Amino acid sequence: MIVFRRSIQIGSLFLFLVFLAAAGNFSGSDLFLRMDPALVGITAIAGRVIKWAFFPALLVLLSAPLFGRVFCGYICPMGTTIDLADARIAPKKPVPPRWIRPNLKIYLLAFSIGAALLGVSLAFWTAPLALITRFYGMVVYPVVLLFSDAALTVIQPIADRFDIRKLMFLSIEDRRYAANLFVLLLFAEIFAAARLSPRFWCRYICPAGAILALFSVKPLVRRRVGEDCNGCGKCARVCPMGAIDADDPVRVRYADCLACRTCEASCPQEAIRFSTEHRGAAGVPVSTDRRRVLVSGLGGAIVAAVGLTGLMAATSDKAEGEVCDPRLIRPPGALPEPDFLSACVRCGQCMAGCPTNTLQPVWFAAGPLGMFSPAVTPRRRYCDPKCTTCGDACPTGAIRRLNSRDRVWARVGTAIIHRQKCLAWEYRKSCMVCDEVCPYDAVKFEKQLELPFPVPHVDEDKCAGCGYCEHFCPVRNEAAIVVTPMNALRLGGGSYEETAKSRGYRLRLRTEKSHVANTPGYPGDDGTPASSGGLAPGFDEGL
Amino acid sequence: MKPIDRRQFLKYQFQGMLWVAGASLVFPSRLLAAPSVPDLAVVTGSPEAAVRAAVAMLGGMNQFVKKGARVVIKPNMSFPTPPERASNTHPEVVRTLAAMCREAGAARVLVLDNPLAPEEQCLEMSGIAAACRAIDEDMVHTVTRPSRYQEVEIKNAVTLRQTDVMKEVLSADVLIAAPVAKSHSGAGVSLSMKGMMGLIHDRGIMHRLDLHESIVDLASLLKPDLVVIDATRVLSTGGPGGPGTVLTPGTIIASTDMVAADAYAVSAFEWYGKMYAPDQIKHIRMAHQRGLGRMDIEKLSIKKKTV
């Protein structure tokens, strides 16, 4: 039985990791996230949305009255990871502290719901799938890549020797994430809690566990103890959740029973069975203090209200007097900021899937309520105007799924030039990299009378803020051309193309323009007359 | 008349050889070889036929690629655009060169570039990966990983004193430059010398220093054994990325002198609607002055042909 559970757990964790590695590359790669009842529940309340995508969580919820917390015991990758850590960290005979009760997780859930009622999602602190996705995607994955790359560096000379091209030119991406040490610290605490009790997180904290606990007070298939029981109490000692009453091993708190069947396997009398037969099954009801639940909910609402009155709190994007980070660029297809923050659970699935690694979690750039939310970071790398991975990976629709046609129009900002840093403007050098790399052909170079080389201008109606220019700008540290969120399209629905056109944007990819038939004009392709004394760009008078 | 005996014959032969050998010390060998091998071969025709004819006029690929040699071909494939846009080398030109290297007995032929745009899109849209697949399944690659580059000092450099070069290029026996002829808003034109920027890792520094000077420094380090400029289409305006005016001279320019090849390409086509002299491109002028090659094409032997 234990082997059976272990194999399901490992299989499930493996599947979860495969899905994460392919985040956004196939529909359904976010399935595990959508199975998390806390993640989905909090998002539904905070964002006031119900959608078909949430269906898997409903199935998980329905599994509770039937089989108990089997999701926690068998499927949840967070639970499995904690099990794996517990096996190495937990003491042989843990003595759970008396000051902490399993009901804590229910009060924490109430707290989250209180905040969600005001539209503030705290799922990113507590929803287990959001946390574990972030852990594997942003902490473990980059480290695996780092070591793989080191191994590759050793192997490549050998591959070169034997002309194994696939290996010779294999390139392992280097992934970096902001705030990854913080995520590690968070998980170090979660793992270290095993010293207090195994599955500490699942027992006392997890809001998904709390929801499932409330629905599995008396599951259809549950533990019963036969008449052979001699009351030795071994089951109570081995139960990782401490759900069995040590004084009367027949009695069990089903709300905390993971149906792991450790007790069944360890019973010397073979008196324990899990079945639909309920003779000999004695449950201990969940007795939450209703007043404490209400107070916790109120607490959540108060914290949310204070958060909403913070200076950086998101308001509708047309609000005057809004203070936000001047470089906070949301991924293409991100909902309007308040809706975005309500829906985003900061799982990091988009950031793990982002092929260029430009999507990074922010610390406080979006205010305390925006922690870990994704932002385009062009200096790191550009945001490919053909890529729709982040929207495809998003489990809650905080980033919309875009078709490839609309994607090109999903503008995320506008580039601006710091002339005082620009090689062409300030240092009088011949540099045109921003124009060379711009996929939208939005950078124009013009000759200025007093300057030796043409200098760049941004045509703001053509710029989508993709960040190619900022990434490739040869000026070090902060680039001389940077993307700002100005004129980003943040739509809750409808077509980006139509909206963009109605605002006069002309977003066309260079690759999709056909060549210009005959335009002797300089410098652009729009036939403007030459202002540089008739010389083609880059040419001079000669000897 | 007394017939000469064998001994006498050998003596005459030997003396004759000595004279020829002595003469070759006095006169540059180029003069003796002039009728056969020109400085520049300029062929107009379909891409494959023109490339084959141009290289044949320089003595054939066997002159450059020995049996068992490791060859790197450097085309332009840095933009995710189709061949008719003329931002990348024509796939037929690259494929023909690769095939010719194979025919000459090359052990390994690689087609390499370090593009700025997403690599897969460049490989696919340029058509180069697909074209070369006919010859070798795994020939065309982009190299972006820093550890695939090696730091190299550039001796006698004016500004770019060191750079990181693709290891495959450093270990190759033969380097063939196969650039497309295109305008370049920073460098004036992007031809074989400018194209060498695709073989190093950090290009940004060349803009921070001085673009033209560092192109010449780089050209003093990376000297292709053979230059084949693809002017089947010329991106006359809007380069390097375009879109811009595309001319279609259908020409291939081959040379062992990158400066001469570039100089010829500058003078042969219209740029932004006007004709220019090679010395109006600073990096060509400087390369000539530093003796890396010759831009005085009027003094060079140029063989033209239509196929």
Number of strands of chain B: 13
Mean pLDDT of chain A: 91
What is the spatial order of strands in the main beta sheet of chain A? Answer: 1-3
Shape of chain B: globular
In CATH, the topology of chain B is named Rossmann fold
CA radius of gyration of chain A: 28 Å
What structural class should be given to the helix and strand makeup of chain A? mainly alpha
What is the name of the CATH architecture of chain B? 3-Layer(aba) Sandwich
Please, how many helices of chain A?
A: 23
- Portion of residues within helices of chain B: 25-40%
The best one-word shape of chain A is elongated
Seen as an oligomer or otherwise, the chain set is heterodimer
Major β-sheet of chain A, in short? 2 strands, antiparallel
The domain tally of chain B reads 1
Can you tell me about this structure?
- The complex is a heterodimer of chains A (543) and B (307).
- In chain A, helix 7 packs across helix 13 (207-215).
- Chain A has a domain at 2-283.
- Chain A is mainly alpha-helical.
- The longest helix of chain A is centred in the first third of the chain and has 34 residues, at 128-161.
- Helix content of chain A is 40%, strand content 6%.
- Chain A has helices spanning 2-21, 31-35, 37-47, 55-67, 70-75, 77-89, 104-117, 123-126, 128-161, 165-168, 180-192, 200-205, 207-215, 234-238, 262-266, 290-308, 337-343, 349-353, 389-393, 404-407, 433-437, 468-472, 496-502; strands spanning 222-225, 251-252, 272-275, 282-283, 359-361, 374-376, 414-417, 443-446, 455-458, 481-484.
- With 307 residues, chain B is of the alpha/beta class.
- Chain B is built from 12 helices and 13 strands.
- In chain B, the strands form 2 sheets. In chain B, strands 1, 2, 3, 4, 7, 8, 9, 10, 11, 12 and 13 form an 11-stranded mixed sheet that branches. In chain B, strands 5-6 form a two-stranded antiparallel ribbon.
- Chains A and B meet through helix 9, helix 10 and helix 21 of A and helix 7 and helix 9 of B.
